[in-house]
Structure formats: C-alpha cells, structure tokens
C-alpha cells in the first residue's frame, strides 16, 4: 500500500478510532468518479500504470508504444530512434474537450466561476474576499490552454498553491483575507460546543509556530481555555485546538468542503446536472485528499507519535460538515501500514536542524562547534578499501546527514511507502512528488547551513574544502557507463552534495575563476592524464603540462571561488548526469518489459497448451513483478530528479561553464566571429571532454523530460555555444561529441518538441548561424560516413536523420534559405552531400522494401489459419519474432528514407541544374526510380 510523505507513528491504542486513523492518515485519492487516487481501481493493468507514469515530460520513439503513452526521444545511438512524436506535460485541447464531464448546459467559464466561488480564489484580480494565486495567474497569462488537463487537475493545483502559500510564511495567513467567512466551520452541529485556540506549547508542541491574527484565530472562539482538552464555560463544552499552520489549512479545507453542500442546498436544480454534480464531487474529494496531507504534516512537519490528531477537537465538538469523516475513513481504511515510519527516523530532520543551529553559534569570528566537528577522527576518514565512495558516505561525520534520499535504488522502502498500490495516477504522483521535494529542500537547506558555516570559519575552511574534494575524488567511478554501485556513494547522497555546492556557487563571478586551475600543481581535484581530452592526445597533454609547470609564475594561488566552481562542475559530472542516464535506462526497461508482457499475452493462444506453457506463465509473472518495481522506482526518481528548481540551477551553472569555455576559444566573448582561429588554444584542447559532453547530455535530458526549464536568461549563451562548436568541428576531436550537439538542435526542433519553439527560433535567427550553420551541417553529414566506431554503419543514419530534420526546418527561414541556395550553386560541400543523400536513399529503400516484403509474406501465412496451425510451434514463434523485428527495422528505415526523399523534393524543386547534368546524380536517381518501380 502507498503512503504520502513522512507521517508519524500510530497513537496510543486507547485513542478513539478516527483519532488513530488521522494521526498518520495516508493520502489516497480515488478514481475520477470519486476521490482522485494514487491507487485507484485494482482492475487497471500493470501496463497501464507504467504507461501513465511514462506519459509525462517524455518523448517515445516507438509508434506502437506512443499509442499507449506520451512519446519519448530515445538518445540511443541505434537506428530505432527515428519515429518521434511531441509530448507535453499537459495535453493541449479545445475548450470543449477540457473536461469529460462538460456538457452543453454548463460552459467552461461557468464551471471556472463555480470553482472560484466555492474555493474562494482568483487568478485574475486581488480582493480581500478571495485568495489570489500568483503562480496560477502567471500560468493563465502565459498560455491558458496548457494550465490544466481537466477541472479535477485545476482544483488540485488551486488547493496545493493555496496551502503552500500558507506554509511558506510564518507570519502571514493567506486565508485571513476571507472576511466573509467569519465562521470557518459553518452550520455547527452542536451550538453549545466551542473550539478554543491555545498556544501549541500547552499541547506538547506543534509542527509550526502559532500565527497571530490567523484565519483560525479570527474565525474560532477567542482564547479562553488552557491546558487540557476541555473546560467548562457557562454550561457549554469548550475544546482546545492548536494555533498553528496546520489549523489554518484544515479550517480552510473543511469550510470549502462544507461550501459544496451549501451550494447544493441553494441551487439544487443546477447542482443536479451531471456536469455540475461531477465538478462538486471533485471539489469534495480534493478537499479530503489535501486534508489528509495536512493531518500527516506532509506539507509542514510530521507530528510526534503521541500527539493527538488535529482533527480530534473538531470531532469532539461535532463541528465537522456531514460526510467529511466518512469520506476520510473511506479513503484511508485500506492502508494497513499507514503509520509505520519508513526510511529515515521521525526525528532525523530535528537532529539535522539542531546541528545546523549549533554550527551557526559563534564567538567573535570563531565557530566552536565547527572546530569540534572537523577535529573528529571521522570528519574525513582515510580510505580502507576499493569502495572509497561508499566508505566516505558511511564513515564520515556528515555522511549520514547527506544520505537522505528518495531514490528507490538507495532505499526500496521509499517506493513501497509512497508509490505502491493497485494503480498510480499522474495527478497524485505529482502531489506526492512535490511534498517529497519540499521535504528534501528543507533538509538540504540545513546541510547548506552546516557546510557554509564550516567554510566561513577560518580555522575549518581547509578541512571543509578537503572533505568536499574527497567526496568528488573518491566517486570518480560514478561517471563510468558500467558502475558497481557498492563502491560509490548513492545517487541521493551525491544529489544532496550537489545542491549544497550549487548554493555555494550561486554568487561566484566568472571573472574570479582561474581557468588553469585543473592544471594547477595545488589543484585538489584528481583529473587523470588518461581522461579523454577535447583535442589533445596523452603525449600532447604531457608535453604541454611539462611546459606549463616550468614557469610557476603562470599560476596564481587558488582562491575559494575557483575551487568551488570546479568542485561544482565535477560534482555535476558525478551526480546529476549519472542520475539522468539511469532515469533514461529505466524508461527503456519499462518500455521493453511492456512490450514483452504484451507479446506474451497476445501469443497466449499459441503457447497455453504447449509443454512450455508453465515456463511462459512464470516469465509473464516475473515480467509483471519487475515492471511493478520499475514503475515505483521511476516514481521515486521523478521526485528526486525532476525537480524544477534543481534543474534550473543546473542549467544556470552549465551556462557559466559555457561562458568559461567560449572565453577560452574567443577572448572577445560575447563578441564571437566565425570561423574561429585555426590555431586551437592549448588550454581548450587539454580540457576533459566531459566538460562539453555533460552540457550536451543535460540539454538533451531537459528538452525531453522537462523542457520548461530551458527558458532562462542563459538561452543566448547556450545557442552561441551550440552554433560555435558545430561550425568549428576541427576544435573537437570526437565526432560523436559533435553529433550530440547536433542532436540537441534536433530535439529542440519544433517538429520534434513543440515546447522548445522559442529556443529554436533564437538559434535559427542567431547572427552566427545564418551564414555558417548550413554549410557546417552539410560537411558533418558527409564526414560521419566513417567515424571509426564499430557501430558507425548505423550511427551515420541516425546522425543524418537528425541533420535532415534540422534542414527541413531551416529551409522555412528566409535567411537560411538564401544560404542553402548559395551553397547549392557554388558551395564546396554540395556535391558530396548530394552523393551521400543518394547513396543513403538507395540503401534505405532496398532494406525497407525487403523487410516489407517479408512482413507481407508472414502476414499472409498467418491469415491462412489452417496452414498456420499445421506449422510446428517453434516455427510459429520464429516467424512471429521475425515479423516483429522486420516491423521495427522497416519503421526506422522508412522514417530515414522519408526524410531523404523529402530533402530530394526540396532540392530538386529549387535547384534543378545539378540533377540534370549527365553523370552520377541523374544516373542514381534513375536507378532508385527503377528500383522502386520493380518492387511494385
């Protein structure tokens, strides 16, 4: 069963039934007809779970898979990544299609007005009687069609933003503006019973400090009772309730729940319409779901195990709206392990916060606790085994604090607790992910305070830098494609460390960074001479380093900004990039397992009576079990990796890296002219290759899975970086690195990812790209014929497919069209480019038509039922496997062939002369025409 972010242990057995439930109540929402759910109908198949999880922020390659989930762009170098569809976090739709419950009787505007009226919110204007939602207002102003997928999604966004507004400020209560709601719980069932606010100290603590003048204080009875739960007052019962953030949020949600009933009583005829009835049901269910989160402390802080539930005073006062408790119980009664603490201990954050406060204590310029911590033997222990990365995590003093993680690979119980259940919906996974991210953000903030204070303390700064460098140097194996996870630190550990480094690097000015640092004799980072360089062999590197070290005056003493910048750069290489690769591998595994399960189920008639039936059933069972684990693992990774704030900071830092590299090749940056100096600067040639590769890989990842992050002020730097190095291929030795930069242009193409259209427009209108990009891409199209890799035969088709797609888009730009025509008429690359285009077309048509022929033959055999049944089962399975393979190959080859033929169409329409000359061009075209005619 699934739970939401950290909830407390069960209360004493003597507490009332509902109290026992609501101390650690789980967040379970139902299907669209009831409460929205992370675990809806058990009848939903496992495949549906994985497909729904894979749907958001991704692009798939396989068309068959796309019919079930949103597509993903596969970054494999193989040939099977040709069929690309666009994706979006929220589906674009016509207004009439926004909600399945909409009808001709209730317009969308009327439904929105009803939602705003009941929830007392607005995204259009600020008023004292409503809560203004700035984030939602910005979304509606930017693109109203993409704000929500249906009304249920919108209601969830409204409630979450309203509640998060309350949690973000200790001294401000966003619900206080609701002046018309002087009584938070209307229609009290028992007038002689009253709720009284008391300070949390009298109730054994509260997750948040009390908020003076809060919504709760203004709408409930004024302070009167103290101490216990009840006090007599003029013959009426008085119950105490904590004055805290949770009370403010709970008051709001309970009242919104009750407002639905009031609306139904005021306008019964209108509310009986199916569309309105469904809308009101969604509001009720979302209020319950978010109340469950509040009662757990998931949005603020988990309550102590023995603290009574915040709901108890309302229950004893019998002041809750009708149906509230029933709905809450219905949502949570199936959760058997709801109160169990999983992962870190309940007091983990308290201990971390206490350590952060201790480190802030100082006398004069000295932080005594920082001195004490760094003097401990386990501050930075010496390595004892080959697993140095895992050692420093387990043995160092701060290792345990940095180990907080939501990744399933670090702790499988995380997925079991938060993302298990019969089914998982995207909406509720997003809510849980946001809560986990909020929890991580808070803990990481304390980690930053600890390390920042140790660095501020002059006596301990050296120890802090040595520890930070040790974390990086002992985890260099995390960058390998095949890594033994037992020898390195966990993903969660490295991501927490990265977060802290990003905060430390935020105010660094690039002018203070010494680009020669990684070659400095006092460099703390271990960069092997065997590390692949951008454009230098090992001998070149050793010779240049020897020359450099002969003159010590070329080096300046390393300063903190320089050391922190390069530590952060290498930390990105060892944290966010490995996490991105693992995320992509997991998505492919989910897709492959889905295919396997589907194939086994579709072919059940062939094997169910065979001797291999039990083996196939066992395989099907294993695949489903593995698929379930992967789906949970992906949900955890979504929370840990797809964090918008984290990804934005990564992009901003990589922008600084880009600027540093561009200044190496063009000191006049940002004023860059092409072509660059033919003499490649040695400092650039000697840089590790991953300095540029990491930028390309990260851009590929965010464009596919979180494209909204791409729109930052640094966009201009990124575009300049891509154009400069694609047009300066002699500066980078590895052709596959150039291919990755080209692939970034490909995935940002509006034909592939519509949400990056603005970025692509900046690229195609960039002054450097107008005259230089097309000839450079034509040159690379021909140069990739031979890359030296064993997979070059297939790689070249993928790369050329990317270039052809880019060309088709650039052709629509009038400035680039002129460059095309100029290159066609007098360019050096045109003839070679056309020859390669013709050769590719011939090969692709040949392979595609042959595979189509085999597909047709097998399909005809399968249509003849009698003849097919006479074949041995082994032969049937072999033919079906061949059919699947041929369909996959033909699909990819036909996609490539289509692109090349489209390019031919554009070229022959605009430039006829080269194709009419007697020679190879016209000859090859005639051969292709005869070849296709012969097959049909």
From TrEMBL:
Biological or metabolic pathway of the protein: Protein modification; protein ubiquitination
Subcellular location: Nucleus
Biased composition (Polar residues): 53-74
Biased composition (Low complexity): 31-52, 873-884
Residue ranges of domain Ubiquitin conjugation factor E4 core in the record: 398-918
Annotated InterPro entries: Ub_conjug_fac_E4_core (IPR019474), UBE4 (IPR045132)
GO cellular component: cytoplasm; nucleus; ubiquitin ligase complex
Swiss-Prot/TrEMBL keywords: Nucleus, Transferase, Ubl conjugation pathway
MF annotations from Gene Ontology: ubiquitin-ubiquitin ligase activity
Region span, Disordered: 31-106, 865-885
GO term, biological process aspect, one: protein polyubiquitination
Biased composition (Basic and acidic residues): 87-100
Classification via PANTHER family: UBIQUITIN CONJUGATION FACTOR E4 B, UBIQUITINATION FACTOR E4
Protein name: Ubiquitination factor E4B, UFD2 homolog (S. cerevisiae)
């Amino acid at each position: 069963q699934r739970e939401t972010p950290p909830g407390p242990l069960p209360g004493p057995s003597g507490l009332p039934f509902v109290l026992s439930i609501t101390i650690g109540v789980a967040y379970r929402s139902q299907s669209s007809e009831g409460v929205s759910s992370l675990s809806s109908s058990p009848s939903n198949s496992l495949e549906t779970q994985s497909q729904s999880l894979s749907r958001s922020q991704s692009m798939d390659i396989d068309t068959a898979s796309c019919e079930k989930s949103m597509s993903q762009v596969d970054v494999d170098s193989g040939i099977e990544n040709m069929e690309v569809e666009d994706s979006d976090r929220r589906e674009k739709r016509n207004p009439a299609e926004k909600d399945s419950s909409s009808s001709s009787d209730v317009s969308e505007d009327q439904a929105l007005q009803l939602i705003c009226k009941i929830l007392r919110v607005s995204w259009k204007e600020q008023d004292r009687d409503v809560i203004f939602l700035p984030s939602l207002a910005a979304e509606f102003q930017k693109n109203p069609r993409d704000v929500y997928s249906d009304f249920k999604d919108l209601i969830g966004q409204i409630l979450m933003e309203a509640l998060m507004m309350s949690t973000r400020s200790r001294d401000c209560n966003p619900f206080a503006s609701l002046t018309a709601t002087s009584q938070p719980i209307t229609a009290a069932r028992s007038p002689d019973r009253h709720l009284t606010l008391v300070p949390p100290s009298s109730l054994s603590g509260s997750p948040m400090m009390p908020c003076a003048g809060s919504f709760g204080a203004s709408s409930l009875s004024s302070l009167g009772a103290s101490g216990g739960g009840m006090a007599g007052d003029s013959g009426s019962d008085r119950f105490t309730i904590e004055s805290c953030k949770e009370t403010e949020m709970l008051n709001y949600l309970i009242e919104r729940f009750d407002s639905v009933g009031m609306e139904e009583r005021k306008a019964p005829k209108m509310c009986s319409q199916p569309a309105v009835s469904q809308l009101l049901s969604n509001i009720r269910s979302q209020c319950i779901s978010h109340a469950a989160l509040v009662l757990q402390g998931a949005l603020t802080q988990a309550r102590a195990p023995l603290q009574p539930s915040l709901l108890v005073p309302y229950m004893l006062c019998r002041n809750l709206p009708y149906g509230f408790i029933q709905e809450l119980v219905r949502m949570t009664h199936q959760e058997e392990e709801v109160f169990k603490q999983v992962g870190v201990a309940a007091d983990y954050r308290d201990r971390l916060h206490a350590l952060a406060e201790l480190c802030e204590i100082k006398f004069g310029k000295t932080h005594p606790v920082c001195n004490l911590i760094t003097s401990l033997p386990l501050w930075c222990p010496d390595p004892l085994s080959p697993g140095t990365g895992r050692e420093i995590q387990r043995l160092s003093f701060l290792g345990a604090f940095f180990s907080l993680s939501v990744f399933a690979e670090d702790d499988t119980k995380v997925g079991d607790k938060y993302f298990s259940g019969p089914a998982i919906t995207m909406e509720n996974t997003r809510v849980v992910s946001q809560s986990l991210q909020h929890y991580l953000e808070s803990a990481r903030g304390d980690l930053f305070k600890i390390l920042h204070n140790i660095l501020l303390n002059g006596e301990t700064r050296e120890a802090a830098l040595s520890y930070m460098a040790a974390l990086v140097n002992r985890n260099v194996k995390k960058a390998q494609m095949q890594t033994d996870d037992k020898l390195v630190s966990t993903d969660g550990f490295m991501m927490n460390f990265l977060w802290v480094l990003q905060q430390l690097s935020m105010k660094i000015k690039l002018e203070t960074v010494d680009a020669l640092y990684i070659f400095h004799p006092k460099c703390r980072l271990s960069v092997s001479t065997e590390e692949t360089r951008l454009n230098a062999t090992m001998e070149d590197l050793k010779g240049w380093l020897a020359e450099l070290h002969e003159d010590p005056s070329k080096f300046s003493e390393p300063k903190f900004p320089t050391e922190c910048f390069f530590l952060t750069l290498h930390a990105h290489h060892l944290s966010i990039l490995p996490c991105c690769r693992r995320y992509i591998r997991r998505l492919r595994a989910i897709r492959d397992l889905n295919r396997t399960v589907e194939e086994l189920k579709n072919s059940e008639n062939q094997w169910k009576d065979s001797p291999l039936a039990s083996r196939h059933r066992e395989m099907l069972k294993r695949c489903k079990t593995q698929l379930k684990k992967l789906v949970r693992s992906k949900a955890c990774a979504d929370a840990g990796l797809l964090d918008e704030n984290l990804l934005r900071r990564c992009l901003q830092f990589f922008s600084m890296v880009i600027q540093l590299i561009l200044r190496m090749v063009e000191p006049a940056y940002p004023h860059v002219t092409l072509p660059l100096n033919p003499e490649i600067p040695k400092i650039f040639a000697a840089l590790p290759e991953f300095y540029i590769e990491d930028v390309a890989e990260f851009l590929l990842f965010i464009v596919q899975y979180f494209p909204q992050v791409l729109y930052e002020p640094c966009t201009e730097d990124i575009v300049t970086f891509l154009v400069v190095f694609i047009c300066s291929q002699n500066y980078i030795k590895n052709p596959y690195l150039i291919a990755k930069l080209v692939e970034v242009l490909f995935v940002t193409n509006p034909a592939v990812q519509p949400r990056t259209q603005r970025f692509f427009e900046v690229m195609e209108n960039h002054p450097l790209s107008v005259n230089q990009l097309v000839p450079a891409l034509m040159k690379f199209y021909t140069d990739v014929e031979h890359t030296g890799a064993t997979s070059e035969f297939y790689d070249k088709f993928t790369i050329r497919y990317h270039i052809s797609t880019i060309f088709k888009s650039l052709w629509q730009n009038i400035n680039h069209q002129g460059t095309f025509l100029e290159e066609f008429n007098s360019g050096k690359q045109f003839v070679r480019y056309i020859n390669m285009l013709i050769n590719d077309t011939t090969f692709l048509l040949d392979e595609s038509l042959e595979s189509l022929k085999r597909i047709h033959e097998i399909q005809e055999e399968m249509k003849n039922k009698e003849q097919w049944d006479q074949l041995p089962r082994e032969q049937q399975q072999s033919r079906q496997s061949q059919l699947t393979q041929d369909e996959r190959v033909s699909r990819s080859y036909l996609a490539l062939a289509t692109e090349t033929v489209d390019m031919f169409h554009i070229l022959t329409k605009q430039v006829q002369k080269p194709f009419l000359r007697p020679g190879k061009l016209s000859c090859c075209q005639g051969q292709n025409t005869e070849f296709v005619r012969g097959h049909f």
